[in-house]
Amino acid sequence: MVSNTAKVDPVWYPWLHHVTDEKPMTESFMSVGRVGTVVGEDSFGNRFYENNAYPVPNNRWVEFFVNLWKDYDSTQIESEWLPWLHHVSNDNPTTHSSVPDNSNGHTVEGPEDTKKQVEEVLRGGELSIEDQHAELDNREFEFETPTADHSNSRGDFITDPVLEAIESAEKQKITSPRSKTILVFDVDGTLTAAGQQITPEMREFLIETRKRVPLAVVGGSDFKKVTEQLAGHDKDLLLSLFDYVFAENGLLGFKGTEPYPVQSIQKAIGDDKLQELINFSLRYMSEIHLPVKRGNFVDFRNGMIKLSPIGRSCSQEERNQFVIFDRENGIRQKFAEELQKNFGKYGLQFAIGGQISVNVFPTGWDKTFCLQYIQDQYDTIHFFGDKTAPGGNDHEIFADERTVGHTVEGPEDTKQQVEDVLRGGEDL
Ligand SMILES: [Mg+2]
């Protein structure tokens, strides 16, 4: 049986809906026999009455159009009338426009009009538009060339000691010969906790380390995500922290601030095969049963497709829940094997990536892809990553003969192992 407010006398609505704690004085104020002025009528034909001779809340009531005795409920009232009827507001649709009064709202006719109206608002405020521009220019100026007082134009994210360390590392780069060793790091689970941003301590550790040895970072994620995780969305800060930055395993890369040419999966595989793979995957994932499913099951990138059975728009909590479920049921392992069986012939590889995805990419487009840019510059390449087991997205570069691989359990462990390597007195 569905319960609703049918068969409730309207005189009880304010009490029932917590508008008041006062119960109506039942006998004398039941709607029968009340006399008042009609203040309006809603589109259903219900009529609204007011008589301020009665005490609040009984001074307002409704008489239903279909006046079957007590066979009515509040869903038969046009919602615009409810605030007035329940004393939430003294405005009713007849005394007041149903368009909400929002003096801070602006109706615009398009981008040009938006611009004009914004300028008008700013002119009315404390800063003229010229002042606003001037302030923005100053900010950009500070941003490009940090001044002696380091007035923290990058916000709280970067502290003065960090800025000093960057400057000193830059100077050192110019004055001292480069080392023969480079340290290459994975991002997620290695420099940061899974899915999280780097801590200020970890960033300072990198800056200190870079005074002794060049650093590179190779993330499986796209450049935006890598920047977000390591530098709070600040691309320039990110590029200033490492000698090389590689996103999407190096399909998109920088040496200093110089970008390498970008590679793409559709160029390599072709759209017919790509679509066959995507269709197969959507069909396969549609038959998996999980505790929950969300959205964004196929994430298409330059050099990789991320297939996520739960969907990449899940919350952190749902993500954690999936990790446990996946560990117990081997969801991604089975999916990756099935993909390998059907599409390995196209020169594609399948690896369990991060916490919720299976990564698909052309063979050799794993993290070893980035090595082509550094292999000739250094004698020893140390790699630190958390997913170094077969099937993990660090496995290939970890096992590659061009690198010395290190398996880490998280940022703290990374720090420890870097210190061990540096203490080893290797010829840097
Ligand atoms: Mg990782």
- Total number of β-strand segments? 14
Sheet with the most strands, sense and barrel status: 7 strands, mixed
The named CATH superfamily of the largest domain: HAD superfamily/HAD-like
> What is the helical fraction, as a range of percent?
25-40%
How far apart lie the N and C ends?
A: 78 Å
Identify the strand order in the major beta sheet.
Answer: 8-7-6-5-4-13-14
What general form does the structure show?
A: elongated
CATH overall fold name of the largest domain? Rossmann fold
Tally of alpha and pi helices: 16
Describe the structure.
- GO terms for molecular function: metal ion binding; phosphomannomutase activity.
- It catalyses: alpha-D-mannose 1-phosphate = D-mannose 6-phosphate.
- Pathway: Nucleotide-sugar biosynthesis; GDP-alpha-D-mannose biosynthesis; alpha-D-mannose 1-phosphate from D-fructose 6-phosphate: step 2/2.
- The chain has a 7-stranded mixed beta sheet with strand order 8-7-6-5-4-13-14. The protein has a 4-stranded antiparallel beta sheet with strand order 9-10-12-11.
- With 428 residues, the chain is α/β, with parallel strands linked by helices.
- Mean pLDDT is 82; it is low at 26-31, 125-130 and 132-156.
- It contains 16 helices and 14 strands.
- Helix content is 36%, strand content 14%.
- α6 packs parallel to α7.
- It is elongated.
- It folds into 4 domains: 10-85, no CATH class; 111-144; 155-263 and 366-423, HAD superfamily/HAD-like (Rossmann fold, 3-Layer(aba) Sandwich); 265-362, Hypothetical Protein, Haloacid Dehalogenase-like Hydrolase, Chain: A, domain 2, CATH 3.30.1240.
- It has helices at 13-16, 26-29, 82-85, 111-124, 129-144, 160-175, 200-210, 223-231, 235-241, 265-269, 271-286, 316-329, 331-343, 371-374, 395-399, 411-423, and strands spanning 37-41, 47-50, 60-63, 181-185, 215-218, 244-247, 252-255, 258-259, 298-300, 305-307, 348-353, 357-362, 380-385, 403-407.
- It binds magnesium ion.
- Magnesium ion binds next to loops.
